[in-house]
Specification:
Layout (H helix, E strand, L loop, with lengths): L1 H16 L6 H23 L3 H19 L4 H13 L6 E4 L5 E6 H4 L9 H16 L4 E7 L6 H21 L7 E5 L12 H7 L1 E7 L9
Parallel strand pairs: 3-4
Antiparallel strand pairs: 1-2, 2-5, 3-5
Helix pairs in contact: 1-2, 2-3, 4-6, 6-7
């Protein structure tokens, strides 16, 4: 049984190591399939039968492959589109570990210090983003505003919420349905770096936008 468990672990490691050059969708599928297959092999080995291990690996691979497809092709295309639209602006466009698309908007292109009005440089980015959201009506959006530590919570908490609300209102003015968007303001409670220099404070004044697609509905029994 020990050899079968080791084999399952090697399968996972080998597959994960071979993800270079894959798209995000392919990586997600491969990783999910590898983990599922490895887990299936272990379960089958514990059952004490070689055939059980093989069947377990196959079933686990299918289940893992399905789980790996949470990051959809639409999200991958949207990510590429936003990377092109924000190239050279300082906006970071990434895939989160829980398969959400994330836009990290720095303060120097989004809001003036102490204000919640969207800057002209930010509008063009949001215009492109809104078009991608309208084209993908099943996705949901979460917008979170942050401030640096300057000032009190009584100032920073509502300011961070106002910034998130400004982004929401701009997107809805460009055709994104209001009920798709959730906003939150974290004030200065979640800094990226220490608020010990002017440059670091600028990094902490930011807006984070997350886009997620709902999990597929389970078939009725």
């Amino acid at each position: 049984m020990r050899n079968k468990i080791i084999a399952g672990s090697v399968l996972v490691a080998f597959t994960l190591g071979g993800c270079a050059g894959m798209t995000e969708t392919q990586k997600g599928t491969a990783k999910g399939a590898a983990i599922g297959a490895g887990a299936g092999a272990v379960v089958g080995a514990i059952a004490g039968k070689t055939k059980g291990a093989v069947i377990g690996a196959a079933v686990g691979g299918v289940a893992g492959g399905v789980a790996g497809n949470v990051w959809s092709k639409r999200q991958e295309e949207q990510k590429k589109q936003m990377e092109e639209a924000t190239a050279g602006t300082g906006v970071a466009v990434t895939q989160t570990p829980d398969n959400r698309l994330k836009l990290d908007i720095p303060s120097d292109i989004s809001f003036e210090v102490g204000h919640a009005d969207i800057s002209p440089n930010f509008r063009s980015i949001l215009d492109t983003f809104a078009k991608s959201l309208v084209a993908n009506p099943n996705s949901n959006v979460t917008i979170i505003g942050h401030t640096d530590s300057t000032g009190s919570d009584a100032i920073n908490n509502p300011l961070s919420m106002s910034r998130a609300a400004s982004v929401r209102d701009y997107l809805t003015s460009r055709g994104v349905t209001l009920n798709r968007i959730v906003i939150d303001g974290r004030g200065s409670r979640e800094p990226l770096v220490a608020n010990d220099t002017v440059a670091n404070k600028a990094k902490n004044r930011r807006v984070e936008i997350f886009v997620a697609e709902p999990a597929p509905a389970s078939p009725a029994n």
